Amino acid sequence: MKAPTVVVHEMPPPGAAHTSCCLTQPAELPHLDLFTRDPQRVTCTVREWAEAPVDSDRGESPFGWS
Fold this sequence. Notes:
Blueprint: E1 8-10, E2 34-36, H1 46-50
Parallel strand pairs: 1-2
């Protein structure tokens, strides 16, 4: 049986409710995930995947308008 993969997220900044790495609330993350304040130790890559070019739809709106 393969051991579960543990992801390290960056703690939300003081006064914020979302992690800096993936913009997720800590309560919504899997219970095995860890948190750190050191950006060098973060292994979460969700935000990198989500940051697509703004014009990825070639100027088309969500409603199909051009």
